[in-house]
Amino acid sequence: MADNKDPSDIHLYTAATPNGIKVSMLLEELGLPYKVTDISFSKNEQKEPWFLEINPNGRIPALTDVFTDGSQIRLFESGAIMQYLVDRYDTEHKVSYPRGSKEYYDVNSWLFWQMGGLGPMQGQANHFFRYAPEKIPYGINRYQNETRRLYSVMESQLAKSKSGYLVGDKLTIADIACWGWVAAYHWAGVDIKEFPHLEAWMEKLLQHPGIEKGRHVPERHTSLDWKNLSQEELDKRAANSWVRTESSKDQEKK
Ligand SMILES: N[C@@H](CCC(=O)N[C@@H](CS)C(=O)NCC(=O)O)C(=O)O
């Protein structure tokens, strides 16, 4: 599907979250120009009809582009967006491997592992630990333990890796997909010090200029600073989040 078109038709709809920054970090690593629309969760823009035309699931990230036949293509689910971008634009295999190679399938395994495991489980750890109106120990323990288990899976893989990346000898979309989640470890209440290879990997990725630049789209990335905040500041951050407002609406629906 590789082609030589000017890629400036790419339009990313995003917000400052672990799923959103996957796509901007990838676009920056590939050196692709793109337009950005910052979607406001507090205004519920992700549920507006015009946005649902792009992503019927009403979540970020989403991306549009002009397809090879000249029509518009609309993509949602960060993993699917990343696969589209490397299939179409990473012709030199900077952050991907050729389709059909063993590493190509290894990258897919880790990408699906992130999409089906790390993201959803750590997201629930955040929810029960930081946002839930009631502190439910069962929910907190279940999702924090599952996040720790998933971190230990990455830790073992990285301990075996000669390159320090998840697959093969270079940074790939598998690493990029996981980075924003691991970088937000403190918000989930998990200690990164238990996972030395994972911590080293997290720092190593920051040395890539595209990761460093893309993590600050659409606004400054702050997850790594949260370990320095007091409990009071962390509680305030959770209390002011749009997630709290949405959770109370959910309670009313019951
Ligand atoms: N599996 C989806 C998850 C997308 C997702 O949950 N996005 C969150 C931000 S990280 C969102 O848009 N939340 C807004 C909402 O739930 O209304 C992906 O990876 O793209």
TrEMBL record:
PROSITE patterns per UniProt: GST_CTER (PS50405), GST_NTER (PS50404)
Chain ranges of the GST N-terminal domain: 7-93
Domain GST C-terminal: 100-224
A Pfam family the protein falls into: GST_C_3
Signal peptide: none
Location of region: Disordered: 235-254
Superkingdom, taxonomy of origin: Eukaryota
Similarity section: Belongs to the GST superfamily.
Protein name, UniProt field: Glutathione S-transferase
Organism: Rhypophila decipiens
